[in-house]
Amino acid sequence: MNAHLQPTGSAYFIAKETELAETHTLSVLVDNEPGVLARVIGLFSGRGYNIESLTVSETEHEAHLSRITIVTRGTPHVLDQIKNQLERLVPVHRVVDLTVRAAGLGHDRPIERELALVKVHGSGDHRVEALRLADAFRASVIDANIDHFVFEITGKPSKIEQFIAIMKPLGLIEVCRTGIAAMNRGPQGM
Amino acid sequence: MSGTENQMTGAEIVLQALRDNGVEHIFGYPGGAVLPIYDEIHQQDDIQHILVRHEQGAGHMAEGYARSTGKVGVMLVTSGPGATNAVTPLQDALMDSIPLVCISGQVPTPLIGSDAFQECDTVGITRPCTKHNWLVKDVNDLARIIHEAFRIAQSGRPGPVVVDIPKDVQFATGTYTPPSAVPTQKSYQPKKQGDLKKIEEAVELMRNARQPIIYSGGGVINSGPEASHLLRELVELTGFPITSTLMGLGAYPASGKAWLGMLGMHGTYEANMAMHDCDVMVCIGARFDDRITGRLNAFSPNSKKIHIDIDPSSINKNVRVDVPILGDVGTVLEDMVRLWRAASKSADKTRLSDWWETITKWRARNSLAYAPNDDVIMPQYAIQRLYELSKGRDTYITTEVGQHQMWAAQFFGFEQPNRWMTSGGLGTMGYGFPAAIGVQVAHPNSLVVDIAGDASIQMCIQEMSCAVQYGLPVKIFILNNQYMGMVRQWQQLLHGNRLSHSYTEAMPDFVKLAEAYGGVGIRCEKPSELDAAIRQMIDTPAPVIFDCRVANLANCFPMIPSGKAHNEMLLPDEATDEAVANAIDAKGRQLV
Ligand SMILES: Cc1ncc(C[n+]2csc(CCOP(=O)(O)OP(=O)(O)O)c2C)c(N)n1
Ligand SMILES: [Mg+2]
Question: Which of B26, B73, B139, B183 could form a disulfide with B62 if both were Cys (CB 3.0 to 4.6 A apart)?
Fold first, then answer.
């Protein structure tokens, strides 16, 4: 009938994304059973969602419950999908978007902390400077020799980023980060 | 049994658990890693095992069995290649929400991870194509896991699950726990009841609608016969027109006066136009799939949308809705019908009369029309004759994938739910014939017809041997156009009619093929002989391959060409060669 109309895309219509992507932190409470992490990660890779950070550990030993903290990036629509898809997994008990919850509580963002081990190699002025800065960042020295330090630093991811950037010219050798642990402020649980 | 009452081997536990979950039939194929289970099967009579010829067949049979009965379908396969052959039907069942339990054998636990003979990472491979899966490492967990598997397969949005059982666990002795003694898991608890506030909101919208439409889907069928009953009641009460997806056919009868036909890519003009122009859309157990919506940003631009679905991830996935109602279709419809009755005693049905007038005009376009022919059988005509001649019988239809599938959906009228099995989400060629066998196992005295294509049927043709072995009088009705017709149609539309590898040279002689398997072959080439040949097929109490030679180059219309909106359909009388050639632009060609 209207074959003369302006043709457009395809039956697989791919709309231009007009929403802006946001970074959110999700808390996922799961049964600590074999394969549960693979299910969560497989869901992200299979559906093309991003993972910026992921941490997991059993948090309630008697109930065999683990808490997975995922930092992900997407449009509000995609973030909604991620939450719904996660909730569909059989071993998943609860999914809370901590970033949304924080906004609801009138906070800028949830509490987010990370731990990093930072190894720095150097001598002379560089070494003195590294130690001085570590002190300013409240990083502690957990291993040292005459020509290296291993610092332990905890804090917001932005603070850790900054510390690592500063250590780069001072002889940064390697970094190990835990990924983010997060919860909301206030008396309520997730 | 040794020692106390509930001590059994793993293999005995499997059989006992199946029995306790009401299983009467399983579809399977033996191998080293499931021999203990097969040994148990041999020593009992409660459960009938159907021996297939390829594990893919077992899966589709279990799907057909499940969809036609509302029960869980069960398949049994060995480790390694047995499990990998099960992947296609598992994904098929996942996409079409079919409850399926697949039991697979695995190499003995101490050998897992050693690349042992016929080892594969079954839970790894099937994780993304199941609702859930388990590797059973302790025989004492086996009964609980099988009971959970049945619960998960059929609750919420139904789907396939896999229970992978190492051979040593099948031999080991452990305790059998009956289903009643297994506490339900805390984590997976789908909500059946819909939010009453939302349902009230929906009813309010519907009461004030002037151009409403009901768009129903496979979720109505999955919810059970009561849901279809309630859907009919809702249509009757509201006077709304209704259309349905491919998966939802039969929930509302094709002979009903509110029926607009199927919607979507090959749906009717009136259904798609009504979807486009409506002011209130009530989506019931459907999921705004891309074959339904066409161009998303032109999809029903002026309507308020109500969406009833049991799966929260289906809501707002492709299309934003105004009133989401999370819950089981049947349960929500019960509330909706009750609230409608209470609120609309004085409902003024005349407010819909303009809308119905418009719909009548759209209907008059007769969008399924085709040019009849006295010399060659038109494929549409063949379906119409099959439909007419099977009327009054207890008929079940399955299909393969392609043009014939769409013609079957367009021209075969379904009056009841659970009578129509087709691979909608995955579009699996090879689905229809084994699915028909599964249906026939569940309904031995019914007429079961697989409406097939000449290419698709060759994907699981080996199951003829299974049908003959069990005396299952399944009918394969092939619309033989010598082409992968749907591929050819797209090549004509999108690729300058360069028919790359869509013509089947060396087509087998289907009549001889049927006979070679011990079935009956029928060929028909003339419209004048078609009725008699179809009658002969229906009356044959054995598996039949019916080679129906149809017009080779017929196209399936109407069609929403790639990337167009619902009101931009290509109708049969306008589908000149030029219109067809220009229907899709270069951008559309990159996709599908
Ligand atoms: C397993 C599988 N492989 C490929 C396809 C792609 N495909 C869709 S329809 C079709 C052609 C089907 O031909 P036929 O069975 O003869 O049906 P017709 O369209 O001619 O009615 C093909 C190859 C598919 N759907 N499934
Ligand atoms: Mg064909």
Answer: B73
